[in-house]
Amino acid sequence: MDNDTEKNSSIVISEEDLAHEEDILRNSYSIKHWLRYIDHKKESSNNVVNLLYERALKLMPGSYKLWYSYLKLRIKQTSSLSIFDPLVKDSNNCFERSLVFMHKMPRIWIEYLQFLISQCDLTKTRRTFDRALQALPITQHNRIWPLYLKFVKSHNLPETSIRVYRRYLMLSPEEAEDFIDYLISIERWDEAALKLTEIVNDEHFVSKQGRSKHQLWTELAEILCRHPGEIHSLNVDVIIREGIKRYVDQQGKLWISLAEYYTRSGLFDKARDIFEEALANIKTVRDFSQIFDAYTQSEEKLIQIRMNQENLSEDDEIELDLRMIRYEDIIERRPLLLNNVALRQNPHNVEEWLKRVKLLENKPAEIVEVYSDAVQTVQAKQAIGKYYLLWVKFAQFYESNGQLEDARLIFEKAVTVEYVKVEDLANVWCEWVEMEVRNNNFETALKLMQRAVSIPTRKTSYYDQSESVQNRLYKSLKIWSMYADLEESFGTFESTKAVYDKIIELKIVTPQIIINYGLFLEENGYFEESFKAYEKGIALFRWPNVFDIWNTYLTKFLRRYKGSKLERIRDLFEQCLEYCPATYCKHFFFLYAKCEEEYGLARNATTIYDRATKKVPSSERMEVFNIFIRKAAEMFGVTHTRSIYEKAIEMLPDAEAREMCLKFADLERKLGEIDRARAIYAHCSQICDPRTATTFWNAWKDFEIKHGNEDTVREMLRIKRSVMATFNTQVNFMSAQMMASAFHQQDKEQNNKMNDLENIAAEANQQTKQEIKNAVQFVKSDSATNNGNKMNETIIITDTANPDEINLDDDEDLDAEQSDGDEDENGQSSKTKLTEIEQKMVPKEVFGGLRNDDDDD
């Protein structure tokens, strides 16, 4: 029993406590009664309350509830006391007595440990933690360890803390990252690196902080390279190189870390070797940029440190010069080092090999070595770029140095390589031949061409991938074209002709080859042979590929024979035009018609132009009609163009027909046929909406002002109103149809209103048709003109409700008076009356300011 309890063992019991004491006597082992009694005495002194707890625990020493309440009370009683107060020691003793019975209760241990931590007794606290871990089952240790780790980390006890952490990791190895962070915080770099190495090599380790293996590797490399003097347990070089092999996408950073490790260790030459090794092994431009920048910065710092030193000795100056030379060499080698990276990344990149040759300019021995490595390394099927260029450039290098025999040896090897495409092999042969031609070896060049085009024992298809390119080379058009050029330049007529015939026989000919063949025969005076060559080409090709052959053939034939073989020329043109598409026939029709104009009959020429107007596309028909009209006027006179104009107006679309009508009317006006011109205007007006075709109506208006009278002006205005009414009616009709369609679409969505809307649409349609029928009537006009000619049919509006309408009865009276020619009662003729009417309507200028009623329209 505690000292304070012994001192107060003779405490007098008051009358108020008798009831509780009686309950205790009757229920000595009831925790509820004891706690009720303690609650009753809670306002008493600490000694009284402690005595009650002691009496209760003496009877029930295994009660967790009593012990926990009692210990919490003792902690509360000592919270404001010094750690050296005897009551604090008594409280510790109380905890120790409780643990005799409560040693399996982690809450008691935690309260005790927290109480000891507040007393700053490190040794006793640490031993108590150890006792707690020994007493509690392992399943309860996770409640003790966080407090234990917090305690050891709160004091500067690195060795103790590390030992505690090691024991903790035996229970929870997944908490290794916390241990590493703690080691880094106390700068125990060696052990931190060791632990990082362990978890990096552990395939089953999963970071609780969400860090990847790569991040752990990066952290390890950073520790190793930045603290080389404190790392004793690990081989840094081996570890970082292992990371370089494992993490290919981060090779640049890891190489830099390794070089930094040696730099911080003072091994500058070793660091330089690491940088050189890195530049010789990396495969990406990004890594190259990182390493090269780090390399140059390292050299710059070393130079700057040496330059900042005072009183340099002779050896120091020599070393500084060497470093400057080394630095300049690094800068100069950058393009070549970058090219090395690109070739390591893809050794089959032809462009990079050729770029490397340019970088080694003026170094012939190294260039030969590069070309040799390139042709041995690059595989034709995997090559990026033009593989054959490696062989060609290699041979041209020897040629440029005057080693022609060596160049021939390279070409001999090049033509035996298995290329992917036949064209690549053909290019090699052509380059070889061109080399011989440049060196004036013409016979050798011809022999090489004969070798190249030699037909193998077994013929194959040009596109048969199963055959080698050497067996398919004889069907390469590039080879044969060059062979033909060589024969034309250095061979005989017979040999050249044989080459062209062989090309045609192999069916690899093109229209250009045919044309070249024909020109070659023509130059040598074999005109009929050249025409036969053209005919062979025509038989081989179809439209539109045969267009150039026909054009050349017909042009050359006309130039040769002119009009001497007219029937044959006509047959050729008919043969050409028989299957000629409409897109290409215009040129041949014009050529055919020109031939007839110069050597044949004009009537045949007009027939050809007429055929052209029917066959050419609609977009070109207007141009053909214009040329047809011009030619007809030149050959037969302008009066013979009337039928052409009529046909053009009938065949052309409205916009072009309107333009043609204006030209036709202008022609008739120039010929003095005013009535014909007026009839043309009246006819054309039916396709000219006054709201859009203002040019036409202005032209007619100007025509009537110059050549018409009041009657013709009224007739023009009447026609204009009629046409406008027609177009307005058409627009209204179309609008009604669109409204009906819209209503019909709405009926589909609203079925309950379908019948009503259909009736509305039907009524609108019927009403529109009736309005059109009542509004417009087509009446044939019999009114005579000044020259006694009849006007064409004219649309007359019968709607009498138009306020702007001219009084037709007055017009009829005027016409009657003019036709009868009788004098009125004053002896004036109708002509005189008409003149007076014109003077009333028109100013003194001759119809220059005629007031038109259509302005009101």
From TrEMBL:
Residues of the Pre-mRNA-splicing factor Syf1/CRNKL1-like C-terminal HAT-repeats domain: 381-765
Region (Disordered): 797-857
KW Repeat (keyword) present: yes
All residue ranges annotated as the Pre-mRNA-splicing factor Syf1-like N-terminal HAT-repeats domain in the record: 16-174
GO BP annotation list: generation of catalytic spliceosome for first transesterification step
Top-level division of the source organism's lineage: Eukaryota
Keyword Phosphoprotein: no
Domain Pre-mRNA-splicing factor SYF1 central HAT repeats: 177-378
PANTHER family: PRE-MRNA SPLICING FACTOR, PRE-MRNA-SPLICING FACTOR SYF1
Similarity comment: family membership: Belongs to the crooked-neck family.
UniProt name for this protein: Pre-mRNA-splicing factor SYF1
Naturally occurring in which organism (per UniProt): Dermatophagoides farinae (American house dust mite)
